[in-house]
Amino acid sequence: MQIDAPDAYIGASELDLIERWLPMRGREVLELGCGRAWMTRQMASRFAPRHIIATEVDRVQHQRNLCIDDLPNVRFVYGGAEAINLPEASVDCVLMLKSLHHVPRGQMSRALEEIARVLRPGGLAYISEPVYRGAFNDILKLFNDEREVRRLAFEALFQSVREGLFESVEQIFFNAPGHYRDFAEFEERMLRVTHTEHRIDAPLHQRIREAFERHLGPEGADFLKPSRVDLLRKPI
Question: Where would you find the membrane-spanning parts of this chain (predicted)?
């Protein structure tokens, strides 16, 4: 397992990879850290799971998610990955989409233990994490430098395989496209989040704007966002 593999990247969206590597049709799915539930909606409508349990630890966002009433096969639950309120061996697959590194330091290994507990034998865990590289990361680290927590997340994954909690099925490195119409959209999606309090004064805000606008063209700003998927299997 590698935290990065510069020569191995493919161009793909997260949904492309989920469709290829994670069979969901008719299955019980757990998504840990669903955020605004955009991916939850896509998976529920495109991949025909029996149910999706979508958890979120941000109380503000969770309350908003509870207002979603057009996803009958989705249940929104408040809670973190380090304490999953589900019985043992109750789900077929688990996803963490850019959320393992948001688990509190010291609790990431516990979160992976919880994932193994709720997975059925042979079940798959799809763990997608951002890689610390690229132009988009150069902007993010101005106000939210995640180098250390991303490293800790990878170490927890590596340890879980080394200790036999999971088997490593595949590692996929991919560049996901990201588009922002303008700085206002970037600001809304990346700065005005409720799960993290960013301390941004006026000079720093200006630096972030200038860094973003270097990539801005007539149709907006486009980025390639490097990511890594660790596809893990619970031993039978």
Answer: none
- Measured from the Cβ of residue 60, the count of other Cβ atoms closer than 10 Å reads 11
Q: Catalogue all structural domains in the chain, each as residue range(s) with its CATH number.
A: 10-233 (3.40.50.150)
How far apart, in whole angstroms, are the C-alpha atoms of residue 49 and residue 24? Answer: 5
Instruction: Give per-residue burial for 209-220: e unless 16+ CB within 10 Å, then b.
Output: eeebeeebeeee
16-29 pLDDT per residue, tens: 999 999 999 999 99
195-206 per-position pLDDT tens digit:
667 788 999 999
> At residue 140, what are phi and psi to the nearest 5 degrees?
-60, -40
Determine the 3-state secondary structure of 170 from DSSP: strand
Give the pair of three-digit tokens for residue 59. Answer: 């109380």
